[in-house]
Known about the structure:
Elements: H1 6-22, H2 35-58, H3 62-68, H4 71-123, H5 126-131, H6 135-166, H7 176-199, H8 201-209, H9 217-243, H10 247-250, H11 257-285, H12 295-313, H13 322-352
Amino acid sequence: MITPNPIFGTGLHAIGGISAASCYMPFEKVKNWTWEIFWIVQALFAWLIMPLLIGFFTVPDLFTVLAKAPASVFWPALLLGAVYGFGGLSFGYAIRNIGYSLTYTISIGISAVLGTIIPLILKGQLIEQFTKIGGDTVLIGMIASIFGVALCGRAGFLKEKFLSSKAKDKGNSFNMKKGLILVLIAGSLSAIWGVSLEVGQPISDIAAEHGAGNFEGNAKLIVSSLGCLLTNLIWFGFVTFKNGSIKTLISVKQTGTKRYLSNFSLSALAGSLWYVQFFFYGLGHVRMGSFQFSSWVLHMSMLIFFSYIIGVLMKEWKDVNRKTYITLIFALLVLVTSFVIMTYGSYIGELANGTH
């Protein structure tokens, strides 16, 4: 039996947020590989190798657990994971058009809202969860989080606009219209990942019966991840065969042994970091007690918060004007406040349940 501890759970979500915010940083060091090849390797680690490896060591009788999963749970979770895969594709292409900051903020912001609300609607628990003790406080925290995300988006927009106005390069690839369409698709479909994990919960329950304890979520993660992997491999396999870049992955001679190993390792690191976020998401989720529904918006908000913190530390914001920087700082303060409010709401709710 896992004792609910929303404060500790929030801390675990924070670790997952840091991992997620930094997972694409290794790509900056990849040389002589196209973005598509980088994505294929990171996808293999994010959605196949790491889920199976960690699942094997943390879930007793893993393959027995998966075999016991009802078809009515396994296939919907897999298919929803595959749908999320299209969101990942759109996310990557959106970055090329409107930059890292705007893509992360808008898409993850949409995902945070939809990924929380849709599962509650499907379960018929929307009103119930927000009207119980602590639920209203959690709702206020969620609204504050959404406001903070919107402010981050505003800061990102001001940054892109300011830097674009200073750029002399007329070949700037910034395309707000195209990028916005892609990011809306990415955000909407990314929310499906949260739904996929909710649908796959019975698989985690089976894992718990086999003694998985805190790691029960690693079982359902394998199923959702496999669906996501299939979508990405089919798409990027087609793209890389069409443009001929697949040769750089299957032939060491194309880049040289040293560069190949470096690129492969960096891509594998990116995929592993992506997976680690949901490893800690699962650990944090089970500790949120009766307020587990808040995990998704909390995790997504943490992701955005730390992506901006990393951007500041890497001096990505050093050339912006004062108005943009003040907007960013205020946005981050609002997000931190929202984390505290949601955690407090979950905590007093658990106190009322007599778990502390």
